[in-house]
């Protein structure tokens, strides 16, 4: 299973500890700039890389450089120059993440506005990776010109930005303070003459890597974007889903974990949603796609890799919940809708620092991506009432006189008025969803961490409903033939991930991977789909099994 996920990265000869860290971060495939830069940097060449913002340049240099680093040497080995303090912190955090499995790697950010003493001390205490803004680093060099004498690899990140900020002289001074024999890598979105001149003076026969941005058209797809802060994304997703009239929708995120988190959040909010990522077995992936096709599912949350080639005519909406990492994959993503001559709609969430990527997308597609605002409470309420009206209308027409008598009888037994009865039925039908303006305003969408076990029995199922109507709340996806669900009381709060359960069941249960279906890890419990045949024997084999130090105690799960 794992081969297919990290296949793209696995072929790149990265250090095994770096590879395992990327897997943990959840990247499935190298972006174009990564696939092309990593071999060049690993081979020790100087390099000039040109690619737009958001294409994954940090990992393009961080992964090969970490692979070349010697953790036993406790002195600066890698120096990254970035234009701003914010970027220095971001790049340092990325290095920390990618080196978390290596052991003994220290990363230091050096920037202005913080006291110099502690930075210098940390530098001398053997941080191997130094991420710095040029100005502050030069201040340090003036006090100790030997400071960088051990650095053997240098990266200029966002070189064009650094020049715009007037760092030309500082950068030249830093070049002079580094050993002649160093490797130098320069990344920039644009290559003006000033940058080429720097490269000419300081790089040795550099290889060029350029990710071209081609113009591609996407007619028949209506595009819109919404500006959000990263922590408002889930709320934005919920609100947009309420007001958008979709039939089936595919949402794109960057990591496998995000597919699970968002799909779970949507399920909790009453949508029929599932995750699609590289960790999910092929057979199960096919089932998800089939369910989306036949209308058993309405929403699939996928990574780019898992959704490759997906062709479901029912898809009316593509939702870019996370920004794609290049314009090509944006075009590819939104091409999942508007198929076979139909029109489609593409929504894009943009966080403030991704603004530039939005411009790139507009340039590449040659189309304006209109801005929309977060739907306000009035709009959300109107959409709810509309859906409710649509779903009740056909029932009203079909209602027989006999039902009226039952109503009267119920009112008598409950000692209530028909209005009170209607209100109670409505509350049951809508699962207590807010239907007045004040409550909608106050409403906070269910937070991702607060996973609750949902009572499965009290959900009125109404057949034949599609978009634009109140959706039946479906607690679980239907099971494939011959499979049953099993439950363990271990969940996220026990530090459990799907792969831990999978590993335990495969190893101790002596199962093949293909026999195990979908695994859902919730906060306080997890569900695993297993073959019904031989289940008792399997559960017997797993009787003493412990995962993350705790007893697994897998049991057949009865939904009724
Ligand atoms: P750039 O420097 O080109 O603007 P970044 O290196 O900041 O881009 O990467 C942008 C985002 O893309 C980051 O959130 C990063 O974690 C993510 N990312 C990078 N590479 C991958 C990948 N191969 N798969 C998924 N996400 C990635
Ligand atoms: Mg960058």
Nutshell version of this structure?
The protein is an alpha/beta fold.
Structure description:
- Its EC number is 3.6.4.13.
- There is one protein chain.
- The protein has 560 residues and is α/β, with parallel strands linked by helices.
- It folds into four domains: 3-210, Rossmann fold, CATH 3.40.50; 221-371, P-loop containing nucleotide triphosphate hydrolases (Rossmann fold, 3-Layer(aba) Sandwich), CATH 3.40.50.300; 377-421 and 437-443, no CATH class; 483-556, RRM (RNA recognition motif) domain (Alpha-Beta Plaits), CATH 3.30.70.330.
- It is built from 21 helices and 20 strands.
- Strand 18 (546-547) and strand 19 form a beta hairpin.
- Helix 14 (327-334) packs across helix 15.
- 38% of the residues are buried.
- Residues 1-6 and 445-475 have low confidence and may be disordered.
- The structure holds adenosine-5'-diphosphate and magnesium ion (MG).
- Adenosine-5'-diphosphate binds next to helix 4.
List keywords for this structure.
560 residues, alpha/beta, Rossmann fold, 7-stranded parallel sheet, 21 helices, 15% strand, binds magnesium ion
Largest sheet properties: 7 strands, parallel
Q: Would you identify the CATH architecture of the largest domain?
A: 3-Layer(aba) Sandwich
Q: Which ligands are bound? A: adenosine-5'-diphosphate, magnesium ion
Task: State which percent range the strand residues make up.
Answer: 15-25%
Class computed from helices, strands and strand pairing: alpha/beta
Helical content band? 40-55%
Q: How many helical stretches?
A: 21
The CATH topology of the largest domain: Rossmann fold
Number of DSSP strand runs:
20
Quick one: CATH superfamily of the largest domain? P-loop containing nucleotide triphosphate hydrolases
- Sequence stretches where pLDDT stays below 50 over 5 or more residues: 1-6, 445-475
How would you write the strand order of the largest sheet? 3-4-2-5-6-1-7
Q: Based on Cα principal axes, name the global outline.
A: globular
Domain Helicase ATP-binding: 38-209
Domain DEAD-box RNA helicase Q: 7-35
Keywords: ATP-binding, Cytoplasm, Helicase, Hydrolase, Nucleotide-binding
Family: Belongs to the DEAD box helicase family.
């Amino acid at each position: 299973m794992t081969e297919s996920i990290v296949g793209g990265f696995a072929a790149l000869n990265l250090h095994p500890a770096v590879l395992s860290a990327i897997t943990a971060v959840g990247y499935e495939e190298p972006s174009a700039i990564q696939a092309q830069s990593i071999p060049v940097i690993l081979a020790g060449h100087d390099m000039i890389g040109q690619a737009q913002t958001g294409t994954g340049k940090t990992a393009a240099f961080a992964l090969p450089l970490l692979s070349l680093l010697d953790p036993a040497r406790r002195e600066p080995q890698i120096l990254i120059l970035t234009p701003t303090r914010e970027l220095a912190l971001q790049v340092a955090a990325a290095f920390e993440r990618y080196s978390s499995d290596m052991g003994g790697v220290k990363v230091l950010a050096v920037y202005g506005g913080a006291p110099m003493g502690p930075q210098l001390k940390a530098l001398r205490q053997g941080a191997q990776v130094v991420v710095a803004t040029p100005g502050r680093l030069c201040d340090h060099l003036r006090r100790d010109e030997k400071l960088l004498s051990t650095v053997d690899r240098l990266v200029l990140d966002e070189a064009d930005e650094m020049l715009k900020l007037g760092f030309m002289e500082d950068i030249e001074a830093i070049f002079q303070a580094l050993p002649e024999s160093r490797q130098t890598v320069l990344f920039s979105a644009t290559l003006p003459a000033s940058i080429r001149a720097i490269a000419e003076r300081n790089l040795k026969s550099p290889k060029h890597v350029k990710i071209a941005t081609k113009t591609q058209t996407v007619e028949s797809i209506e595009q819109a974007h919404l500006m959000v802060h990263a922590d408002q994304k889930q709320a934005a997703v919920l609100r947009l889903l309420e007001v958008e009239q979709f039939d089936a929708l595919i949402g794109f995120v960057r990591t496998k974990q995000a597919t699970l988190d968002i799909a779970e959040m949507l399920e909790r909010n009453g949508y029929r949603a599932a995750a699609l990522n590289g960790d999910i077995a092929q057979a199960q992936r096919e089932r998800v796609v089939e369910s989306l096709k036949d209308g058993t599912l309405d929403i699939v949350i996928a990574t780019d890799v898992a959704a490759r080639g997906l062709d479901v005519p029912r898809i009316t909406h593509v939702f870019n919940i996370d920004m794609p990492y290049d314009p090509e994959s944006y075009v590819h993503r939104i091409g999942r809708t508007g198929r076979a001559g139909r029109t489609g709609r593409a929504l894009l969430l943009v966080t403030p620092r991704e603004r530039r990527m939005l411009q790139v997308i507009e340039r590449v597609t040659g189309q304006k991506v209109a801005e929309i605002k977060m739907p306000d409470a009035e709009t959300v309420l109107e959409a709810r009432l509309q859906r409710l009206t649509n779903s009740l209308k056909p029932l009203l027409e079909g209602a027989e006189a006999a039902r009226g008598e039952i109503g009267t009888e119920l009112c008598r037994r409950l000692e209530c008025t028909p209005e009170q009865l209607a209100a109670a039925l409505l509350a049951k039908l809508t699962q207590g969803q807010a239907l007045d303006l004040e409550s909608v305003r106050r409403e906070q969408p269910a937070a991702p961490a607060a996973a609750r076990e949902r009572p499965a029995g009290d959900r009125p199922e109404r057949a034949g409903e599609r978009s634009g109507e109140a959706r039946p709340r479906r607690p679980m996806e239907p099971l494939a033939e011959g499979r049953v669900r099993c439950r363990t009381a271990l969940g996220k709060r026990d530090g459990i991930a799907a792969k831990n359960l999978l590993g335990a069941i495969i190893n101790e249960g002596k199962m093949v991977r293909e026999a195990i279906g979908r695994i859902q890890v919730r906060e306080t419990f997890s569900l695993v789909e297993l073959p019904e045949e031989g289940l008792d024997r399997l559960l017997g084999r797993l009787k003493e099994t412990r995962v993350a130090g705790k007893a697994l105690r897998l049991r057949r799960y009865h939904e009724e």
